[in-house]
Specification:
Number of helices: 17
Number of domains: 3
Helix content: 10-25%
Structural class: alpha+beta
């Protein structure tokens, strides 16, 4: 009898769990929990005891009140408060809230820090009154700008496996009156063009306004001797591997909390570092500070081989303070490559001296299988003046197809094109015929440049560095081979997304510029670097666009080496690339929905270094980022012949859909 009951109990238990699974019974991660955290600072005053009293309100992303302690609402909210002022005559903050740290280089230093010992009074509507533990000095100036910064981190790890963050600041004059001056040089929005959501110190700080309350001249790293003043540190971080000091062999490092070493010596800025307005963008009240406020600290942060005390690297001119910087370095003179701030930061390929190159492909004829297509095209400068193909330093037409997935391409020198005709068009007939089995739609693209010598240029007169490639942006033209109408190659990536970080997408010596439709003709599933890779470095590496770009952007997070040999037969390693945003946010690059299954690619990618070669299209897209052997083996096991079963688990609506695994919520710490 006992045995029968035990069997029935086990059977019933199994049925119960089957019921749970079959009915998607909610787990802890599925219970409806409000997400996010919002913080609004309502007021700030100084008490008679010289403590700062701050009133703020906490809500979730629906605007509903949150309990800071996590008792009445899900998730405790950790609060950090920073108190700072702009001393009279200064343009940057000095913190009231400080700590001391000791290091090997500077000994014991005082650093800006968060308030400690403060008290909270909580209300059910989410309003919190915070009284600082820090007591302001007796001689504090109540007539200058004071700022309270608060970081709020809501911990929903237990419920959702996520944490959420919000920052807020509040400017006030304790004695009353209009707040002036302020510190507003770079906007968070400018940073988030690349960083998606700026996050630092474990994700606690997400706005520039909060960062600068601590990152000012008051604070230095005692272990390295490096300042963490925002204007210096950020310039150095972004110039990274190109800093003169780094190139000379001295790494740029900051030692942070718990002795963690942050080495920025491999950071590569994804555009020309002279493009100051990428960060100093419109929207900031003091966006032109980089023009109007030159200083030894700011300029010496990028040009860190200049010794202002001796004049070395500064034309021998000794500069003991900042008062005379503007005499030579005025904001702008209207000229290029001079001593003005704007002139000194002229980007050669953007020089006004370049007439420009503008391509147009007018038409393509004789496009049947096995035929040699003829391309009709024009070249003009930006003013509309015609440029003869023979006047180009380099000019190539690239033929490829089919557009379902490129597998064949050829490039030919087109400087011998015939023309012009009455309409100003030039005509070039390919020497290489289309494949006899060509089907569907094919494409032709154009690329090239003229060498132009700038005068004045960035270097001394006669220096080859003054010769610039005045290159045209690539254009493509789709044409039918057997299709009734041309079918363009699928659009997976939006160029505008690339340009948010890269400003101008220029590769291969300025031959491939600002047109992904042109890039993918060569960077197709059949492409590798075999022709350029030395025999002792074989096997070759894939350069398929989806494989290459995923791997480049994952960079330092790749588990395996990814190095491609370029046209100069030199290795280009990508394992040190640092992507400035969350790799889960596919739509930073992709057009909406194109990162989801099923993928629209049709050909397997030649991957001589992969776990399986060739790698099917869906697997290629995934294992290019998830490059561990176990991930590649997982993809291989779930492929039968040419059939990939990825969609069974990772398709939309499935338990492990790409959209779920890559989901990011607003304010989530990433």
């Amino acid at each position: 009898m006992k045995r029968k009951l035990t069997g029935a109990l086990i059977f019933g238990t199994v049925l119960f769990f089957v019921f749970l699974i079959g009915n998607d019974w909610p787990t802890g991660a599925q219970v409806a929990v409000s997400t996010g955290v919002r913080i609004q600072i309502l007021s700030a005053t100084i008490s008679p005891e010289r403590r700062v009293v701050v009133t703020f309100r906490l809500t979730d992303d629906r605007g509903m009140p949150l309990d800071r302690t996590g008792v009445r609402t899900e998730g405790r909210v950790e609060i950090n408060v920073i108190l700072a002022r702009i001393n009279r005559g200064d343009r940057q903050y000095t913190a009231y809230t400080t700590r001391t740290q000791t290091g090997a280089v500077l000994g014991t230093v005082t650093q800006a820090w968060v308030d400690t010992g403060g008290t909270f009074v909580d209300s059910p509507d989410g309003t919190v009154v915070y009284t600082s533990g820090t007591i302001l000095p007796q001689n504090y100036d109540p007539t200058v700008t004071h700022t309270v910064g608060i970081s709020a981190v809501r911990d929903l790890t237990a419920a959702l496996g996520k944490r959420f963050v919000a920052n807020a600041t509040f400017d006030f004059i304790p004695a009353g009156g209009e707040v002036s001056p302020i510190r507003d040089v770079v906007t968070t929005a400018a940073c988030n063009q690349c960083h998606d959501q700026l996050q630092a110190h474990g994700g606690r700080y997400v706005t520039v306004k909060t960062c600068v309350l601590c990152h000012h001249p008051q604070t230095a790293d005692p272990d390295t001797g490096n300042t963490v003043d925002f204007k210096v540190m950020i310039h150095k971080i972004h110039r990274g591997r190109d800093l003169p000091s780094v190139r000379a062999g001295t790494p740029y490092r900051i030692i942070g909390f718990m002795g963690r070493v942050f080495d920025f010596s491999t950071v590569g800025f994804p555009q020309d570092i002279r493009n100051c307005t990428t960060c100093h963008a419109a929207g900031a009240t003091q966006a032109d500070n980089h023009l109007t406020q030159p200083s030894r600290a700011t300029c010496g942060s990028c040009h860190d081989n200049v010794n202002f005390a001796t004049g070395e690297g500064h034309l021998g001119i000794i500069q003991r303070d900042d008062t005379r910087c503007g005499r030579c370095h005025q904001p702008t003179s209207g000229e290029e490559f001079d001593l003005s701030v704007a002139g000194a930061h002229t980007i050669p390929f953007k020089s006004r001296q370049l007439p420009g190159v503008v391509f147009e492909i007018v038409g393509v004829s004789d496009t049947a299988p096995g035929r040699t297509p003829t391309v009709l095209f024009t070249i003009r400068d930006r003013s509309g003046r015609p440029i003869a193909p023979s006047a180009m330093t380099r000019l190539a037409l690239v033929l490829g197809g089919p557009t379902t997935d490129y597998a064949w391409w050829v490039s030919e020198d087109a400087r011998g094109a015939i023309g012009p005709d009455a309409e100003g068009n030039y005509r070039y007939t390919f020497r290489t015929p289309l494949p006899t089995d060509a089907r569907g739609t094919y494409v032709v693209g154009i690329e090239g440049y003229r060498n132009i010598t700038l005068n004045p240029g960035p270097a001394a007169p006669g220096d080859p560095a003054n010769t610039v490639r005045d290159a045209g942006d690539n254009v493509v033209k789709y044409f039918t081979v057997t299709d009734a109408q041309p079918v363009a190659r699928r659009q997976i990536v939006d160029l505008r997304n690339c340009l948010k970080c890269h400003d101008s997408l220029r590769t291969h010596g300025s031959n491939r510029n600002n047109n992904i439709e042109h890039c993918v003709i060569c960077h197709n599933p059949t492409g590798t670097d075999e022709a350029r890779r030395p025999a002792d470095r074989m096997p070759p590496e894939s350069i398929d666009f989806k494989f290459l770009i995923h791997k480049i952007h994952r960079g330092e997070h790749l588990e395996r080496e990814y190095t491609v040999y370029n046209f100069a037969r030199q290795p280009v390693p990508f394992n040190e690339v640092r992507f400035p945003a969350s790799l889960k946010n596919c739509q930073l690059c992709h057009t909406p929905g194109t990162q989801l299954l099923p993928v629209r690619a049709t050909l397997a990618t030649i991957t001589p270094r992969g776990f399986q070669n060739p790698t099917p299209p869906t697997s290629t897209a995934c294992v290019s980022c998830h490059d561990s052997l176990s991930a590649e083996a997982h993809a291989f096991v779930n492929t039968s012949g040419t059939v990939e079963t990825c969609g069974v688990c990772h398709g939309e609506g499935k338990a492990f859909a790409v959209s779920k695994l890559h989901a990011l919520l607003v304010g989530e710490i990433r």
